[in-house]
Design a protein that fits this description.
The complex is a heterodimer of chains A (256) and B (237). Chain A is 40% helix and 20% strand. With 256 residues, chain A is an alpha+beta fold. In chain A, strand 5 and strand 6 form a beta hairpin. Chain A starts with a helix and ends with a helix. Chain B has one domain. Chain B has eleven helices and four strands; from the N terminus they run αααααααααββββαα. The chains are: A alpha+beta (256), B mainly alpha (237). The interface between A and B is medium-sized, with 25 and 27 residues.
């Protein structure tokens, strides 16, 4: 077969394939984007899984329910690193076309310089009070780990956390997500001590002391991942400090 | 008359004659892509820690294998032999992209869970191997059946391995799907709660089963069992 035949064959083949795949990609784009958004929202809500209301199980939430909760009960805020709230324009200029705080991709933010980052806050309003959900991201053993931390109205007590990871070892590091007992430990811990100093919550190898409200047990065999969680919380929650201080400062005035 | 029709049938080639059926059943045991041809081991180790992703990837491989065989066979006489490998790869890659897009649109959680492994179907030796060995030299219908057969043979082993790994590694079955069953574990969700049960207090899930190494052992044992039971596979050399 001549060279010109080969060239013609390849050209025709690639054109057909390219057109077919493009058509399919464009056709399914909207559905996939919606799926991705719902998936991320579900991950955020998993931090307040215990506060979704009587009989509502986080795992069984339907897509519609998730969208509904986000529309009606969740207030989204985007912050810059000094705790100022950003409007849609500010979010767009940080590289998110959607212009909503939920569009913020923590993976992208982690790559930016610390001063340029923006942070999402999700305020979940229930009859029993507000929950503030903060997003954090750090490093595990093999790859990135991330989580959503829900704080109670005092902005110190943890109401719930959820973690996820990209490639931690199943049965060891992956336990931060797979073993419900690990995130459960964080519930009720405080990130500020009595004097109002920021302490975060440490993950202690070999087990935290009983009754320590600023530490939880590590995972045996997964020290690096567990340490990563501790570090991620310490730095990630500190980014929110300006915002936390604002809310705390304005509290007495609000009274409702 | 009777003799006439028989002859006609022979010329027409039956849809499901003996040979065609053999194409479907052979890869399930005598010529299994994993245990006999030892192809596709990489993905068999990686995705089999849970049954649901294994099932999804099996369906995807059956689809990709069958249709890439069909398409390759249809155009086999037009493919220039100098670039045939690239052509085969393009066909496989576009079908895998179709699977990926479909999964992303219709089952996003599973898409997330499988992440890179869907893309890795492209490099699954089974698909490429069948195209080179069979589809390039056979008619479309037979190639299609061969593709389905090999996909199913691959899937069968994947499901067997995944069931063993999930039951002993996690104490559950079909985790992540509506059919989820939880057998044994340290919380109240499970049928047998090792924390409160009088009989199973000693039991804890086998963490090795969760690691890819366990799949290697299980596949090894499967190969062993199959070889010792199937006289056709006994090595006479």
């Amino acid at each position: 077969m001549s060279t010109s035949y080969v060239v013609r064959f390849v050209l025709i083949m690639t054109t057909i394939v390219a057109v077919l795949l493009t058509v399919m990609f464009l056709g399914l784009k909207d559905i996939s984007a919606k799926n991705e958004a719902v998936f991320n929202k579900k991950a955020i809500l998993s931090a307040v899984a215990d506060h979704l209301g009587e009989g509502v199980v986080h795992k069984d939430l339907t897509d519609e329910q998730i969208v509904d909760i986000f529309e009606n009960k969740v207030e989204q805020i985007a912050l810059n690193m000094s705790g100022e709230q950003l409007d849609a324009q500010g979010i767009i200029s940080s590289g998110y076309k959607g212009g909503k705080p939920e569009n913020i991709d923590m993976a992208k933010e982690k790559k930016k310089d610390e001063a340029d980052r923006i942070l999402p806050v999700y305020v979940y309003n229930t009859d029993k009070g507000k929950f503030y959900i903060f997003s954090v991201r750090g490093n595990g053993l093999w790859d990135e780990i991330w989580g959503n931390i829900a704080l109670e109205e005092d902005l110190s007590t943890i109401a719930g956390v959820s973690f996820d990871h990209k490639g931690e070892t199943p049965g060891l590091g992956a336990e931060i997500k797979d073993n419900p007992a690990f995130p459960k430990q964080f519930k009720g811990k405080k990130i500020y001590n009595d004097k109002g100093q920021y302490t975060s919550v440490a993950v202690v190898k070999g087990g935290a002391e009983r009754g320590d409200i600023h530490a939880v047990d590590g995972i045996s065999g997964a020290t690096v991942t567990a340490d990563g969680v501790g570090k991620m919380l310490a730095t990630g929650l500190r980014y929110y400090e300006p915002y936390i201080n604002q809310i705390k400062g304005s509290k007495p005035g609000i009274k409702n | 008359m009777a003799a006439n029709t028989v002859q006609e049938a022979k010329v027409q080639e039956p849809l499901f004659g003996k040979k065609e059926r053999k194409l479907l059943t052979d890869p399930l045991s005598d010529n299994n892509p994993i245990t006999v041809q030892v192809l596709g081991i990489c993905s068999a180790l990686a995705v089999t820690s849970l049954v649901l992703p294994s099932l999804v990837i099996s369906i995807a491989v059956v689809f990709v294998c069958a249709f890439s065989s069909l398409i390759t066979s249809l155009v086999r006489n037009a493919i220039p032999s100098q670039v045939r490998m690239i052509v085969q790869l393009v066909i496989i890659a576009s079908l895998v992209t179709v699977v990926e897009l479909a999964l992303k649109a219709f089952n996003y959680p599973v898409y997330k869970q499988l992440s890179v492994y869907i893309g890795l179907i492209i490099t699954n030796c089974i698909v490429m191997g069948r195209l080179e060995a069979f589809a390039m030299a056979n008619k479309p219908w037979r190639s299609f059946l061969d593709g389905i057969g090999n996909g199913l043979g691959y899937g069968a082993i994947l499901i067997i391995v995944a069931v063993i790994r999930e039951v002993f590694g996690k104490g559950s079955l079909f985790a992540g799907s509506p059919l989820e069953m939880k057998f044994i574990g340290a919380s109240d969700d499970y049928m047998i709660n090792t924390l409160t049960s009088d009989w199973f207090g000693w039991y804890s899930n086998n963490n090795l089963m969760v690691l890819p190494a366990a799949a290697m052992f299980i596949i090894g044992i499967l190969i062993w069992i199959q070889r010792s039971r199937n006289p056709k596979l006994v090595d006479i050399s």
